Records
---
Amino acid sequence: MRQFIQDIAENSHYRATHLLQILRQVQSRYHYIPEEAIAQLSGLLNIPRTQIISVIEFYSFLHLTPRGQYELLISDSITDHMLGKKDLFDYLAKKLDIAVGEVRKDGLVSLDNTSCTGMCDQGPAGLVNGYALTRLDCAGIDKIAELINQQKPLNEWPSELFQVDDNIYKPGLLLSQQIEQGAALKSAFKRGIKETLKEIDYSGLRGRGGAGFKTAIKWQFCSEEQQAERYVVCNADEGEPGTFKDRVLLNSYADQVFEGMTVCAAIIGARQGFLYLRGEYLHLHDKLQTILDQRRQNGLLGNNILGAGLYFDIEIRLGAGAYICGEESALIESLEGKAGVPRNRPPYPVTQGYLGKPTVVNNVETFLAAACIAVNGGDWFASIGTEKSKGTKILSISGDCAQPGIYEYPFGTTIQTVLNDCGASDVLGVQIGGPSGTFISNQELERKLAFEDLATGGSFIVFNSSRNILDVVHNFTHFFAHESCGFCTPCRVGTSLLKKQIDKIVEGHGSAGDIVALEELCQLVKNYSHCGLGQTAANPILTTLERYLGLYENQLKEISFEPGFDLDGALEIARRMANRYDAGAHLAQTDESGSRPIASLPPSLAVGE
Amino acid sequence: MSKTITIDGKVIPFEEGQTIMEAATAAGIYIPHLCHQPEFTPHGSCKLCTVKVNGRNCSACTFPAMDGQDVLSETEELIDDRRKITQMLFVEGNHLCPGCEKTGNCQLQAVAYHLNMLDNHFPLFYPDREVDASHPDVMLDRNRCILCTLCVRASQQKDGKNVFAVSGRGIHKHLIVNSDSGLLKDTDLEATDRAAHICPTGAILIKRTGYRVPIGERIYDHKEIDQVSLEAEHVKHGE
Amino acid sequence: MANKIRVATTSLAGCFGCHMSFLDIDERMLQLAEVVEFDRSPITDIEHCTNCDIGLIEGGVCNSENVHVLREFRKNCKILVAVGACAINGGLPALRNHIPLEECLNEAYIEGIGVEKPKIPSDIELPLLLNQVHPIHEVVKIDYFLPGCPPSADVFWKFLTDLIEGREPSLPYELVHYD
């Protein structure tokens, strides 16, 4: 092990910024991070061991205790559940003779849940040693169990288990015409860098991650910073459940994305770029690396790009299972090899980003669009869309529709049009923008995709009338509690409290005051959390409470109060140990002897009234 | 003309580079806080110091003062919500004041008193957390840790060490110490370190000193934290 | 004196320290007795409460009997008050929440030093322990909270006089203590 650690540390030039990448390799080799590795890395990278432990304990894919030689993770996204995840998961656990969250006694295999793996159009999905598994079914699980028990190396597993399709059903402005490698850069140099920024400005392009900050302004700000070193970062950490468009863009349009990054580098004056690829997309890593190598060979990266004197290169950095790293400042922390905890702002990344230097962070789709704009000009893009939302939006559509996949629409398109195209006729509601977005009911299908109306990062999940909205809310609320980074009180504690409160209501233990308590808590988490995660973590509850209050109320008991824990269950141990089977050894969950209404407070108790 | 901001209608001056918290403190205005200590880089995590700046919630300890800002702090809404945030800190840990040496000197308790917090409001988590009594002079009781990271910062910024760090994610976040054994006794922490004295709660305590001042005669038994906090600042500036 | 205010009190998983502190109102008790009569309480020996205005509960909920008593109070008291640290957050009895109940019972009745005739008591007269101690607001709705271990006599006095005189009860800074 010593040599292995020594080698990877040396390959990383002993830089602490590579800690996460190094730990990924150790995890991949040993299926955990052994104590010896921590001690050795602490010395080699000259960082305290606590820093290493805090990184390991932050990311879902890193472990301090051994996982199986085959680490199986099954995606827990609502879309996987809609495709029968629960039964499959049980089947898998039984087949492998393993409990959830555990390592089998022989150490061969471990099984657990993981947040959405971005395969919502081809789920139920999972990961084995980080590699994506798609379209899981009983036959596939039988095969996987057999392969594991035979200890077959992953490269000998049948490729269909790992087959990931693009499923592009409706290409639009950006997806219908691939631009030639180098075309965007050539156009940009020919037109002039400043003019190219102007074109991007004319295009009206806004960030595609969901927040919608104007791209040209961000680039302009960054270019005006008084610092020599600047960075370009492509945020490919699409962790929003229901989103998978970046997976497709990087699989089939990577050249354009890299080209967009290079154009950005030329404009802001950056020499180094990063593609922060979510760990779930490990299967794309080598392919992307090859494309980068090609670009270097073709003079599109590296020294003196296209003879224009520009130096720029791109490094791929992998995430390790943390939704929060999609938040740009958390992503930058992660790039620096640390836990992905969002920074205080200001300063914003454009002034102090990676290593404190001015940094542009944009979504994959934004860079793709920028490359196309560099070729075709700003008007080409701006002629499509609405007043405040120019161009098109690429959607990842999943859930109850005939053709889940990738669809590109001009901004301003109605939800109904989208539903017609993807073959969704029975629609209860649509989750726009993923759990952090908005749940709209079937009464709102004429609403439009646009920053003015329904802003979205691209997640579009359709629910038909057989779905239970509270199950959806339950899944999303658990997701946020699991993904909260824990930095600030309102989100750290609040998302866990939301989880408890929604469980109480969904499990039928809610009583009169519980919805008021739920809403009050939602507002607290929303208004006081440090970053977007906490500020949107209550959206699944708030947007459904607004539309389906009756659904929540139906869950409530007709009483004034019910405990949030199982009273009779809490007596089980004592009952068993005392061998008590009499009626007195049990407790009803609520006082069934009839409660009388509680007086409103404070009643005047003044004597003599 | 010096630049000014308005806090709850009161116009106060500030110097370029000051945070809202710094400007407020200098002007004798207390904004509740726990993870903030003027000598250390602000952290902005406890969110107790949330104020409304031109209608938007911001952490006063990290947000820069800017000319003309209209800041609201002591509104009914903010006070109520600060109380709830304090209640969150109480329910996520195990804060049993009657059995804690720090009672009466505890800032978590004092902020709660200041906000007239009478109950926990939320269900209690009763988490399992480790106590580390291994160090000869310093006690670490994670049950009372509120993850303010003041010990982390004090160790790095004042003691030139790296004794503490925060690890884990979400509700599982916890304090760890820098030694192979994971125990405090094997770190280079000394009882004279600033980090050993900075804890706002009773999570890090100096052994054998807990009851030198009897309960009932302690800092917050008779003085509110707003007064104590502002006085401490003014003493430091020789006022 | 038909319109005297009826007050009931009890201690669940508590130490009666809050009751002792209540008695510390000393001679003010006479003043109180003019407008208040005690229903179920350790100081009256009444076994069950009926139609009370105020119920004062000391202690948290650690066993099935606590649940029954708490429910009786909730049903029969217009205003139910959590008195003291244990009622509010489980207090010291809740220290056992970190030890599995199985271990607690084994230690106390089977394996502990000095245990003779090791056996877990089993009698229908004995309440069963809940696996964790809970504050009372997690089991019934509570209207007011009086913190302290115990709350001082002045806290009881201030709270009751506020209520009796028709004011919204409030505690000034010097009366709020958790220790």
Note: The radius of gyration of chain C is 18 Å.
---
Amino acid sequence: MTNMLRFLTENHYEAGAIILFGIGFLNLLLQDNLIKKFIGLNIMDTAVYLFLVSQGYIAGHTAPIATVGQKALASKFINPIPSGLVLTGIVVSVSVTAFSLALVQRLYKKYGTLSLDKVLVLLKEDKEDESNP
Amino acid sequence: MILDYVLLIFLILCAIGTTITKNLLDAVIIFMAYSSVMAVIWALLQSPDLAITEAAVGAGVTGILFFITLKKIHSVKGTRD
Amino acid sequence: MKENGGKWEKFFKWINGETTIDSVILENSRKKRFAKRKLRHQKAKFIALRLKHSKRRIQEIICIIVAVVFIGILLKTASELPTCGKPDNPVNNEVSERYLEKGVEETGSINLVSGMILDYRAFDTFGESCVLFTAVICVAMLLKRDKNNIDPIEDQELKEDEEIKNADGSLILKFVARLVIPFIFLYGIYVILNGHLSPGGGFSGGAIIGAGLMLYSTAYGQENTRRFFTYETFKKVSATCLLIYCFSKGYSFFTGGNHLKNIIPKGIPGNILSSGLILPLNICVGIIVACTMYGIYSFFTKGDI
């Protein structure tokens, strides 16, 4: 219990990131509507990024932008590697979102609904129609 | 320190809000608020590059793409159908 | 008499400006389609509901149990992590120390994150630009309106939208857009060109310029954007930028592990014309991201750039 309390007070960013990941994960698993599924996927993405960035944070150090002629930078700046990784990740997550939304639009054009259950039932019907016309 | 907790709790509330709203437009708007708060948290974590990118990409472009998709699938009230 | 009445009704409606004749026909065809669809949907809803009460319920419970166990394991693991924000955590090892200590003299860039992603880890960024380009190609494959992808009802909807927009005028949007758009473009270009001196760089600046293009296209219509940005320019510009990036960083494949000496001199760190290849690469990435964002937007709205 004390361990958990220490965790919540000291590693609060990590705790928040994991809770957000859980919410996004449940959203992705349980939502019926496809748009909400993709919002859940985006929430999962940002939770992972929050975890990564909080690992690179060092209390009291500033953002890695030097002034000319500054020495001993490692004792003044935060870790730049997670920032670089997450910067690429954000833009990739946008392209994944755009692609999945394009798929959603095509799906709506074909079946006229966004509910995954209904789409699955209609798909099964179509297959039956094809096999015995 | 207190600001951290307030922002994190706001994030979690936004994430739950997107799950439980019935209206898709509301869900997308709450998600945009979530992205903006995320940008503030990244500024607090000393990564201004990420803050600028998230504010432009997460809250701006992703939101616009979701809105256009909602319009295409006729689920924004007051425009059509 | 009955037919006559129907026709007159339509005519009076048309006189009163409630709806045009074209859209009446369209309305009927749409209604027919939606009615057919509705019947199928009701059937599907019924089956889906029945499924939900038997099989789906068990699946949902299993999903919740799996998710809760998974999150519990993650929380337990994260509680064993070292305290966030200590300088001697195992994350802050010799790699980041090297990047921080030698970064300014080796890359010539003041912003160490931008120096890292465009010099030490430039291939990472190149792959990511390729991911963006691939995303636009996939969206174009799915949504481009050509002879294989024609839907008369959607065409009619787009035409009606255009008419509504022209009649409405959207005066406030046009006025505000005229005031704001130059500053958006200026800010985006500033963020791209100062990528090695201040926070920002190709990704954020490109996204800002893309958002500006979207605003222009919304306010003044796509015909006006087509005057300077067509599908041809999109293809040529983004392919050229990707090729420039590829050749300026890909030469180390042919020269072995050691890079050739930089062709562009590094200059004095802190000046705007400094840091060798980082400034041109930032411009390339910015153009690719701006083209990508606007391309995705226009494929989503009109089905063509």
Note: Residues 192 and 253 of chain C are 28 Å apart (CA to CA).
